[in-house]
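Entry 14. Structure prediction run on the chain below.
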Amino acid sequence: MDFGLADKVVIVTGATANIGRAIALDFAAEGAKVVVVGRDEEAAGRLIELAGRRGAGTVVFVKEDMLDPSSAARILARAEELGPVEVLVNNVGSGASVGLFATTDQNAWQADVDRSLMTTLRMTRAVLPGMVARQYGRIINIGSTAALGGQYAQATYSAAKGAVHSFTQALAKEVGEHNITVNCVAPHGTMSSDPAAFSTGSNFHPEFGSRRKMHMQFTPEQNAKRWRKGPLLRQIAEPEEVAAAVLWLASSRSGYVTGQIVLIDGGALL
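Output returned:
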């Protein structure tokens, strides 16, 4: 299937690991000009090498810490060297305040808001004027099932991702008249089986990952509360399954779809 993405300039944030990595690789395979944003140069190098072996076109790494409010302008400037930005995928976000809410503090809450919400707002605000001027754009935000059912021991992360969902729908109403669609993909548990798919900022990194630390600090009973099971035998999504939904929402074939929260959850919220 031709998604009509060849030569389009695409920004993918949080692109050096897991979901973001799979999204970047799929766009590259479609012939898009992909700007991958992250902090881990080694992981970015592995991604670019793999994309090249698969015959992909242009993949450019931009090293930025998106907690820096000025990073969005620099990312956009680098992307526009390749052409007008037509697709933005906001994938930065992780749970900083791991633990029962009563044991966390305001610094951890703010970190959740900064990572999962503010990075999305700033990057979207940066690309939007150009999309409006050209009367075309695709914005895909990565949300979470935590935003819909609440994640045990991740109250502020759930709240921040809930804000991403609401922002998606509100913005879709504002920019639809400019032929810009805004959608959200909300995964459940997602983890790559490829050891090369983890960066130092990945939630599932064996040494630095917040999810590993979270699992270790709780009892088996508490961990059971955290995990909502779906009807499928497999309870963990592959990042490529999330990427497939993102690719379609970015394509010319999804022009009549906007303001939607697309669940990739194995039926966990049924």
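The chain has one domain: 9-264.
Filed with the rest of this week's runs.
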